[in-house]
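Subject: complex prediction, re-run

Hi both,

The earlier run crashed halfway through, so I resubmitted it with identical inputs.
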Amino acid sequence: MKIVAPISNIKEAEMLLHYGADELYCGVSTPEWEEHFGGQWWMNRRSPFGANIITWQSLSKIVELAHANDVPVSVTLNNSYYPAGSKKYLLRLAKKMVSELNIDALIVSDIAFLILLREEDIQTKIHLSSVGGCFNSCAVDFFTSLGVQRIILPRQLRISEIESIVTKKSDEVEFEVFALNDGCFYEEGFCQTTHAFDTPFCLINWQIEFCNHSDVIEGMVVDEQLKELQEYLWYLNNCGCTFQKNGLPNGPCSLCLFGFFRDWGVKAVKIVGREASFYRKMRSLQLVKAVIDRTREGAATDEIREFARSLRETPEYCEKGYMCYFK
Amino acid sequence: MINVGVHLRDTKGFLQLDKIYEDIRGLIGSSWELSRIYTGDEFCANRLPSLTELNKVCELAEDRNLELTFLIPYLTDWGQETCSRLLDALYKKNPSTEVVVNDWGTLVYVQNKYPSFKLALGRLLNKGFKDPRLQNVDDVFLLSEELAELLNTGTFDSVELQNSAKVFGFSRMERDLFPYEKHDQKAVSEIKISYYFPFGYITTGRVCLLSSLEAPKNRKFTIQDRCTQPCNKLHLRMKSKEIPFEIFQGGNTVFYLYTKPMLELLVTRAELDKARLVYQGQAIP
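This time it finished cleanly. Structure:
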């Protein structure tokens, strides 16, 4: 199993390679895109400021350094929809990245863009973003027929559902799953909101009115339920973007499940957070690497789980269950 | 005359048809006729009908000379197996039943197992810009052609997808109106279209806020195989100063209510594109 780590700045490259990233993924943003969309809409699911590579030179250096260390680099163009004009632009950009920089893969979710890349026979690997929504084994057949070679499974699958898909299809396609950071309240593939506004939609402080058909809400203390919701959202948001006392990051993870992923044939585990700080990226990678090393050594699944939990200095967070991916 | 379908989640809806007709007249006037019943669910596998319920809905639709469309949500492997009991029954009754799928894998599944079903793409497959927080919309349209295109179009407008309809095996696309779309030109594509009203969906997911309200502590905010369907009794109205739309949560899905101009656009589109309209007022109890 490989560790796929996010990079948004050339300054992070050496650190990520040093601490064991097997693959890197990044987003880009260009002046032409900003000119046409004026900050109202991003080229991918994260902000151009802080989460994306914004110069060709930086991207070029990152790829050069990564390739010198046999580390592939994927570029994410993972909006769920690109209108016609922007698709043409992105196709040109993708071709340029492939021909001039030899980037190793594009991470895509827009079905029309996927079809277009196939028609244009772009000479790089295509990974289906989690935003593309592969929820079942038949979807694997669909996406591989469009040239997809790796599928990043959605957050909102349960572990049994991942097992069902991966064990049936790991001979036909590579699978990647989320390992650490950044939960999502909704299924990202069906979320038609943008992160470009100040607050993510799921974190808006709504004034919620319960409209009950019979004007009676039985046995439900509404304020308590809403507090529970806020607590859940806190966990999803990397426990309020906090760290343990030893500096390892708090936040959603699937570390306990690495043994199962290994045994079923998952190819890669992904650290989320292109927008994260240098420090968070480094500590995230260290945490994931520690667990993956045990996994690669052949440790039993329950041993891996115990080890992962032992690294968490806040066992109460694990006990709560809100921090677990794929539950 | 505009063709209208009505989404009924169960047989009780048939008893409310008079009220539903009145609601529809209030929204889009009187130049329409009911041609079809929709049943099933787009967003949640737990809301699919039982086999008994589905059979009753089929009978009641047939008694009234109404065609039937079956809505399928996005499904896991297990979800497809479970749903197959319902699909088997529909296939036996009428192998040309219209079926709406909301994930690409279920499209493949249905095609393989029930090759003569008429396939429609559901609105979860039509991605676009639906964030209801956009301010100064008219100014945004003027900023660039690309932004205007973003606000006016979605996946189903893509030439690449439309050209793949035969290969992928679908003949209809089901969608809602995006909150900011303005254009009132005839659709270029020849593929049949349905528009849902009076709500569009914004976002959805398998972790259901409403079912979590009643779940025991250790099952809150998890994906659940079954629930008591509190969404049948309860919905949430969500308010925020920055949002001009009325926003609701029904079940696991957040919706925006169409404004009056959107309803007018809906009727224009239905007339121009000979589109079907699908009334889903019962989505919010």
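The radius of gyration of chain B is 19 Å.

- K.
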